[in-house]
Amino acid sequence: MAPHPAPRRQLEPWQDPKAKPYITLENVTKSFGSTIAVRGVSLSIYQGELFSLLGGSGCGKTTLLRLLAGFEKPTTGRLYIDGVDVTDVPAYERPVNMMFQSYALFPHMTVVQNIAFGLKQERLPAKIIRDRVKEGLDLVQMGAFAERKPHQLSGGQRQRVALVRSLVKQPKLLLLDEPLAALDKGLRERTQFELVNIQERVGITFIMVTHDQEEAMTMSSRIGVMEEGRIRQIGAPHDVYEFPNSQFVAEFIGSINIFEGVVVEDEPDHVLIDSEAAGCQLYVTHSAAVPVGAQVAVAVRPEKVMISTTQPSGNRNYAKGIVREIAYLGDISIYHVELPSGKIIQAALPNLFRLSERDVKWEDEIYVFWHAENGVVLTS
Which of 335, 337, 317, 322 is nearest to 261 (CA)? Predict the structure, then answer.
């Protein structure tokens, strides 16, 4: 019997040149007087995505969200939702809803009244309002709290009510402004998965603004990393983390070790870099073509760095150093190793043994090393 062919892997919408974007921004700029908050942003988002805009304070991510909501009008550029130009359409006429960081629930209304408020404003029939409210309460398992008021709910419960109030209007696009910022760490982590599951069930396109890297990595189909009003990189969480396109993105997403150096060999399958900071040659297999003599940086994530008390073979991708700090974090420990150049490199290792049972202690002389595929060459 002939073997069955392996199933063909389906392209994600953003990988398919035939796919039509659901949300499109074309060269959008927003200025407030002499301050440029958003600088020439072009962006395509596809139906059913949970897309995150990630960046520090003042990078323009919330302004971009307000432009999509219709609360601000772009200085230049166009915005499209489901093929319709909404650049000049006022907020109340757009098929968009927004969930604010504060949740903005009416304190004098019950859960049911809060959820139904927007539907009543649209003058929908009473039966449709009742049905949608019930469906929404069932979706987030809040039926038992229907008659409570916001002050009688926990932070997580208020977050669910605010989410349902946004969803029952059945928008084409839901905008979320730091939706989990008001929750404590444990509740925030649980709610991340709940929110993703709800988004997958309802199928509405979500665009979320956050400054929390872990939140964006956990929840998003894709991430847009912003700096000074520009989007520096767009990609799936794995791609942005493993293959940053610049030193800014590499340093912004998670912890990173950066080694500056000069390219001494550029071949189709590898790049070789001399680095005084590392005290060794860096051999990298993942790289775009870079000319010999170019000044570049090599990024290596701490979890890719290994530690040994014996010298690795060869003369590449390893350095000798002294353990200056060990930070115990429960599941992992972070080792700070000082190299002869004075540079500190971080290595993150799982805690397979208790701290007292390990070979490596403070002030020990050890070797740090990593594999050729674990480095990323950064040219900007």
Answer: 317
Task: Order across the sheet with 50-54: list the strands.
Answer: 96-99, 173-177, 205-210, 50-54, 222-227, 230-235
Amino acid letter at 9?
A: R
Question: Does the structural domain 255-378 have CATH classification 3.50.50.60?
Answer: no
pTM of the model: 0.86
For 13-247, CATH number?
Answer: 3.40.50.300
DSSP symbols for 13-46: GGG-TTPPPSEEEEEEEEEETTEEEEEEEEEEE-
Q: What is the pLDDT of residue 5?
A: 54
Whether residue 131 has pLDDT greater than 70: yes
Domain boundaries, the chain: 13-247, 255-378
Tokens for 99, please give them: 């969930």
Residue 196 is encoded by which pair of tokens?
Answer: 């993703």
Rg (CA), the chain: 25
Q: Which residue has the tokens 């929110």?
A: 195
Q: How confident is the model at residue 1 (pLDDT cuts 50, 70, 90)?
A: very low
Task: List CB contacts of 141: < 8 A, sequence separation 6 or more.
Answer: none
